[in-house]
Amino acid sequence: MSSIYGKNIKVTIFGQSHSKAIGVSIEGLPAGIKIDMEELEAFMQRRAPGQGPFTTQRKESDRPEILSGLVDNVTCGAPVAAIIRNKDTRPGDYDQIRDVPRPSHADYTANIKFGGFHDYSGGGHFSGRLTAPLCIAGGLCLQLLRQKNIHIGAHIASIGNVSDTSFDPAGAEPADIELPKSKPFPVIDDARGEQMLAAINEARLAGDSLGGVIECAVVGVPAGIGDPIFDGMENCIALAVFGIPAVKGIEFGSGFAGSSLRGSANNDPFIVEENRIKTKTNNHGGILGGITTGMPVIFRVAIKPTPSIGVEQDSISYLSMENVKLSIKGRHDPCIVPRAIPCVEAAAAIAVLDRLLESSKY
Amino acid sequence: MSSIYGKNIKVTIFGQSHSKAIGVSIEGLPAGIKIDMEELEAFMQRRAPGQGPFTTQRKESDRPEILSGLVDNVTCGAPVAAIIRNKDTRPGDYDQIRDVPRPSHADYTANIKFGGFHDYSGGGHFSGRLTAPLCIAGGLCLQLLRQKNIHIGAHIASIGNVSDTSFDPAGAEPADIELPKSKPFPVIDDARGEQMLAAINEARLAGDSLGGVIECAVVGVPAGIGDPIFDGMENCIALAVFGIPAVKGIEFGSGFAGSSLRGSANNDPFIVEENRIKTKTNNHGGILGGITTGMPVIFRVAIKPTPSIGVEQDSISYLSMENVKLSIKGRHDPCIVPRAIPCVEAAAAIAVLDRLLESSKY
Amino acid sequence: MSSIYGKNIKVTIFGQSHSKAIGVSIEGLPAGIKIDMEELEAFMQRRAPGQGPFTTQRKESDRPEILSGLVDNVTCGAPVAAIIRNKDTRPGDYDQIRDVPRPSHADYTANIKFGGFHDYSGGGHFSGRLTAPLCIAGGLCLQLLRQKNIHIGAHIASIGNVSDTSFDPAGAEPADIELPKSKPFPVIDDARGEQMLAAINEARLAGDSLGGVIECAVVGVPAGIGDPIFDGMENCIALAVFGIPAVKGIEFGSGFAGSSLRGSANNDPFIVEENRIKTKTNNHGGILGGITTGMPVIFRVAIKPTPSIGVEQDSISYLSMENVKLSIKGRHDPCIVPRAIPCVEAAAAIAVLDRLLESSKY
Amino acid sequence: MSSIYGKNIKVTIFGQSHSKAIGVSIEGLPAGIKIDMEELEAFMQRRAPGQGPFTTQRKESDRPEILSGLVDNVTCGAPVAAIIRNKDTRPGDYDQIRDVPRPSHADYTANIKFGGFHDYSGGGHFSGRLTAPLCIAGGLCLQLLRQKNIHIGAHIASIGNVSDTSFDPAGAEPADIELPKSKPFPVIDDARGEQMLAAINEARLAGDSLGGVIECAVVGVPAGIGDPIFDGMENCIALAVFGIPAVKGIEFGSGFAGSSLRGSANNDPFIVEENRIKTKTNNHGGILGGITTGMPVIFRVAIKPTPSIGVEQDSISYLSMENVKLSIKGRHDPCIVPRAIPCVEAAAAIAVLDRLLESSKY
Fold first, then answer.
1. Residue A67: its chain C contacts at CB < 8 A?
2. Of D27, D65, D76, which has the smallest distance from its Cβ to B4's Cβ?
3. How wide is the angle at C-alpha D43 spanned by C-alphas D356 and D41, nearest 5°?
4. Pairing relation of β-strands B322-326 and B313-317?
5. The Cα angle at residue B85 between residues B79 and B88, in degrees rounded to 5
6. What does pTM read for this prediction?
7. Looking at the complex, does the CB of residue D1 fall below 8 Å from at least one CB of chain B?
8. Which of A175, B346, C28, C161 is deepest in the core (most CB within 10 A)?
9. What is the dihedral of CA D344, D347, D353, D354, to 10 degrees?
10. Is the ipTM of this complex over 0.90?
11. What is d(CA D158, CA D146) in angstroms, rounded to the nearest whole number?
12. Is-contact A157 A167, C-beta < 8 A?
């Protein structure tokens, strides 16, 4: 099994980069929830390609067609299924990689895993394009969560060596984390954003690419969500987020930096404020023992630089079993971090809703 | 659900820090595999408490009693179940935390999650003690993997601000990663180890604690293990590793550092050596598209400093709903990183064997 | 969760009777398997409505559109997704049941389960129409199984009080169980079939309906498939078969009749024939301890009479909370048993392939 | 996977007939539920061997030792784990079956499944003894259900050719279905019970065995429990019940008999009584579309005659690959139906509680 996520909701993703369509079925959504289709499409647009210098020029409307599960845009309890037709496909672009795998791509591993029968065009089922159905599911979950006053928002924490400012770990409000969504380039500090764009352009002109870090916050999640050991909030968010191609790391709260501190510096004291229990600081990232504390859930995700680059690289030929040179044709993002932002929000939304539904039983 | 891991094998963990016993059932192990019980016990000893200045003085033999699943130490296809009796229990030590949750512990979240009915003694089901059954399962998986020439080994990458040298990402051999296991303090560079021990002692004398980073390598895993999207090797290892208390982050290959590089610097060129396909470098950490490349799988885990410290901290009282001062009695590790090493190996072994069994079907 | 089946393959079904489309995603099919699309469509036709006096006159071509997972009709390892557009929908036919639930239908339970938000048209997600995507998945599994020389076939064992002859439990050959598939009315003894058709017509003219029993055989399955306790072949086939609406019972081998015998009469002696171990009789239905013996797997399924009938019935009105009379309009099968035959074959194929892939690991 | 059941609760069973111990872990039970240990032990006694002429003379106290999950007999949210030590083991009794499989037993299939490495003593993991941990889990679930006024009770519907009277499908009250539990021989009509006992004794004296049918009712389950298609109440109960060795069939409501009726005779009209919606009859067995209607859930289970019999049978020798004669030594039940009653109640309780916890989310 591979393309199904969740226990209380089940998100089943299907499709390849150049198959007839890509799509998703989401099972377990409560019935009677009104879905705002315009909002869903606006969310999809944040991930869609073809907008601005830092993305592939492949043109896809990415408007989901809902096949089932909604009656007059209200969930009816049946699985919500939606598809997106692949339009602007150019399989021809990929004949080359049939014999010569692209470095740091899944071409080679897919070829081994599926005995050479994998759909190699555009990365097939491994393509970043598969994050579109992920975003359909996540976009729906985000709407359900917001109806419970749970907000999820992400921004670009860094690209190359340029860093954005961070969310306030202990004090972030819904408005703070919703703000970057409204921007064409989702950062907190627009001046830093300009520097990031410059760095991306520089890389692009050099036929190269850049990676970065995404910071995501979940605000308004009640205390007590998640389970011990293997169904903890960290396990579940990590499981979902690593479903996004190019993700190579995740840390919660003070994460790796916190691991170099002493306990007295990293611990978060409990305090009572207005008869509510909170923590003074939030190095724990809103999660203790796998369960939410009611503080913002904060995590950061490492996105590797786009492996598809124009500059010549070393690779091999399956046929000749010799080393060959490769320069990748086709249309690629010099930096996929901006488009990965809604994907991270989507993955987090799916994980949080899944755990939220686990609670309050019997 | 919370304490069950896996799809092809199922590891079910049960017990609390001060319950009659803790234990595990491992289902799906192939039949006919000879288990070396002495080796399993030696592995358990690496995690066991009560050895040396950096660990709790709680005394537990931690010798697993196998209840089923083995006939003359050979797997018979039935679930392998094992338990460890809790002997040196001192529930009295924990009366205090019934009303006053320990900062950065699961006391508070467990209390909310289970409506005050949780077993608070020693952290109950959330205790690090539950990594003992995890290690029983992992120890068995390690033996099965080694019979397939797959080796898993970890070392302390850093404690506080002292760093060990790293495994050679592209060239690590079984002997290299098995070496630290033979040492009382599992590092590559013993001089650095001395400095780490000094830092731990310093913290201990100050009634404080330290965290650190663990690096783990899987050598000999064939290419083609793992699945796209949600059952990728990264997803599965992360899911298992976050089952270890105090883990707050994980990164594969070049991880967070790699996300600041350009594609041309982070990509790993394919090369043909002795008619085998390899990569020149290993920034991808042995995993592309969720599937192993045949290169060593390398990942690092962030361990937060032990939250239980002697120095006075701020917390609250459930009863009075007022801020109170807390200094923790009881026996605790000033640094759990050394004892977490076999736990990380165990979690990785469970995840790798589970994915390995997924392959080669039909 | 509700509409996903399997562990080694995952079949995800979505859609409602009158939604835009119904469909399925099948995950875990081995890569490199050639699919015969004509054969799949021929299989779908056996379930399709609008053929002959005993079926609803609703017209649906039921030709599946493959969206992904196949490249030149060969499985590529990615999920195989397919949809069928709903064309001949007449929601108007169902306004009545919004307020008045049809006796022995899911109208009432769906209304309670989903708080009145369920899609009531034609039974929504509970409709027999959802067996079309089940048959897409099952049709694919049947082809994979046949490539392993495993054949699955079913026939009408009885309708009303008319019984067909049975498969030879211990001696059924592939040809024997494939035969009924070739007939418009799938029985072994055509004379009995004529009597069954007469009984169906009689019921139809009376505005009434009939049920029946289906016998299904799996021939060629090797010994050793299935697992003890909860993943036994019986558990898994039952779980899948009860996914077909109107199924109310299942029995394996001598089943209920065998439970009245003595052990000496019901036991199946082992014998050696041509150096192969077999059983002389097959009261065990090819399964012992949940695991196949290599003898034909034989089971019978009870199908209740179609609940939708023209004759006036007693029901209630949600609005008035009073007893009311109901005579059902719309187009319905006086007997769904013939169309249920491929559904039972499909469910069995999914279960058998899922267990088959469980075996041969490590 | 094989010995784990459930989605909202997870029941993990381990052990073999002659292993050190057998046991179970139950995960997902709500916290704060008081468990009556005496009641649990009384329930276990109904399954325990060594009582009366119709059971094996093997002596086992079958008193479960709770290892974890309870604090002062109250669930704490952690998995409840319990074991039973195997005391009266006589592996010697089974040397014979190492080479000669017992007809209609799992000896042969286990041998193939596990390549000859299975634990053959007493049937190993396939033994009826494994229903003891099933009953521990089920006994706990029964207590939780009863605290929600849901009662589950079963009785012997028939043994050989002697039938008991049936529960009133539409009118059964808790007292009606609890009654048989209080009897040493659980029937409704004691006169019929005497005839059944006579038939069992007759078979026993002939060195033979008998099977039978068990009828089980669930009273008080609210309407709306269960899910469409694969998580229906029928699917889930069947999946659990086929986990009991010797079960070969299951039917709900009018079942196989109902399949020969016309719709007008089998349909259950809805009626309003005291402003509550009910059905006049209950041929649907309390389940429509996989979801409970609020009427009693009624099902019958076919139990095959005990395959272990004293009379000489034909079997084969693995070593000589020749036909041989076999008469089984050891201690066996001439009829396991009476002891299977609490097992069926247990399986039903696990399935019902699992589905009950699925509902009421978000």
1. 14-15, 19-23, 83
2. D27
3. 115
4. antiparallel
5. 155
6. 0.96
7. yes
8. B346
9. -150
10. yes
11. 27
12. no
Token digits for C303? 């199908």
What's the token pair of residue B304?
């937060």
Which residues have a Cβ under 8 Å from the Cβ of D38 and sit 6 or more positions away? Answer: none
How many other C-beta atoms are found inside a 10 Å radius of the C-beta of residue A166? 14
Residue contact D302–C258, C-beta within 8 A: yes
The chains found to touch D (3+ Cβ pairs under 8 angstroms) are A, B, C
CA distance D41 to D61: 10
Given an 8 Å threshold on Cβ–Cβ distance, is A229 in contact with B2? yes
155-174 of B, contacting D, C-beta below 8 A: none
- C228 with B360: Cβ contact below 8 A: no
Cα distances (Å, whole numbers) of residue A174 to A179, A241, A253, A288: 9, 21, 18, 22
What share of chain B has pLDDT > 90, as a percent?
Answer: 87
Which of C140, C144, C361 has the most B C-beta neighbours within 10 Å, making it the best mutation to test the interface with B? C361
Asked whether D125 and B87 are in contact (CB, 8 A), the reply is no
Domains, chain A: 9-356 (3.60.150.10)
What is the DSSP code (8-state) at residue B283? T
For helices B337-358 and B233-241, the axis angle rounded to 10 degrees is 140
pLDDT for A313: 96
What digits encode the pLDDT tens for the residues D165-205? 999 999 999 999 999 999 999 999 999 999 999 999 999 99
**D25: chain B residues, CB-CB within 8 Å:** 12, 14, 23, 25
> Could you tell me if D73 and D8 are in contact, meaning their C-beta atoms sit under 8 angstroms apart?
no
Q: If contacts are CB pairs under 8 Å, which of residues 291-310 in chain B contact chain A?
A: 291-293, 300, 302-309
Handedness of CA B273, B277, B283, B286 (dihedral sign): negative
Q: How far is B328 from chain A (nearest CA, A)?
A: 12
C9-68 residues touching B, CB cutoff 8 A: 30
In 3D space, the residue among A86, A28, A26 whose CA is nearest the CA of residue A61 turns out to be: A86
DSSP C266-293: H---EEEETTEEEESS-TTTTEETTEE-
Q: C35: distance to nearest CA of chain D, Å?
A: 26
Query: What is the rounded CA–CA span in Å between residue D293 and residue D223?
Result: 4
The per-residue pLDDT for range D57-108, each reduced to its tens digit, is 566 678 999 999 999 999 999 999 999 999 876 656 677 778 999 999 999 9
Please name the residues in contact with B194: beta carbons below 8 A apart, sequence gap of 6 or more. Answer: none
List the single best residue of B12, B13, B87 to mutate versus D (max D Cβ within 10 A): B12
A76:C117 CB<8 A: yes
Tally of CB atoms within 10 A around A285? 28
Three-point CA angle A143, A144, A150, nearest 5°: 85
Q: Is there a contact between D247 and D301 (Cβ–Cβ < 8 Å)?
A: yes
Neighbours of C185 (CB within 10 A): 19
Other Cβ atoms less than 10 A from the Cβ of D85: the count is 16
Nearest CA in chain B to D14: B79
B238 touches chain A (CB under 8 A): yes
Dihedral of alpha carbons A174, A176, A177, A178, sign: positive
Q: Closest residue of D to B26, CA-based?
A: D14
- C360 contacts on B by Cβ (under 8 Å): 360-362
Please enumerate in sequence order all residues whose Cβ is within 8 A of that of D257, keeping only pairs 6 or more positions apart, or say none.
Answer: none
Q: Which residue has the tokens 């009104």?
A: A34
Q: Which residue of A has its CA nearest to D29?
A: A362
